[in-house]
């Protein structure tokens, strides 16, 4: 399956049982809801998927399960976030074996590589696999910027096809388009900037709150792309307090609480993360429940 790299790609949460095992039935329930809402692909093992705490065996289980579950309706994309280039290459090969149809690739983890090293890392992984690749550009959280000059070098690799744009600078959408045209598809990776970046020409949205609110997320994207801006904006304004939960270091706990409230997940997280409690939980729950009490009726599109 070729990937078009457009539309809605949830950065999917990893569901756990109370005994800290993978909760595949709950994972599948949410995945079914996402597909029914009209998402265009799913990304496993990202930051929101608690990538740093899940094992290679668990990644394999999740990937094979998702591939079987979606039955070719959408592409399953596996995130790679590794410190060693050799390990990233191994995981790219494993992803293909497990049935993934694409990769999301972060710069090297834990070492702040310079521009030459960052480019070499991406080139080595890209050259090792035929899978389509989306580069994750998030200098705010990961301290390494994938510059336009790096993308210039990566343009020589046909399977490097897209960017998850998380620089927090909406102007970067225009910079990418001005320099590369449509060579790289651009997917907004910051929930609170999604509609703005789509209006500027982004091709899609790698979402967080979509895990709990797939229908609203798809509606904002499709209405915006159709030029029905007022209708999209009405949903987006309602959505914003929820989307802001994606910007916090505890985004995993916050989004999992939202999933639990809508019946698409649980609050179970893996240590060192701990479930929310006390005043903090009450505050986040208030945001979620206020939104649920005022949930908009979506237009036909």
UniProtKB/TrEMBL annotation:
The keyword Lyase applies. GO terms for molecular function: 4-hydroxy-tetrahydrodipicolinate synthase activity; 5-dehydro-4-deoxyglucarate dehydratase activity; N-acetylneuraminate lyase activity. SMART domains: DHDPS. The keyword Repeat does not apply. Its EC number is 4.1.3.3, 4.2.1.41, 4.3.3.7. Keywords: Lyase. Pfam families: DHDPS (PF00701). InterPro entries: Aldolase_TIM (IPR013785), DapA-like (IPR002220). PANTHER family: DIHYDRODIPICOLINATE SYNTHASE. Belongs to the DapA family. This is Dihydrodipicolinate synthase family protein. It comes from Chitinophaga sancti. The lineage of its organism: Bacteria, Pseudomonadati, Bacteroidota, Chitinophagia, Chitinophagales.
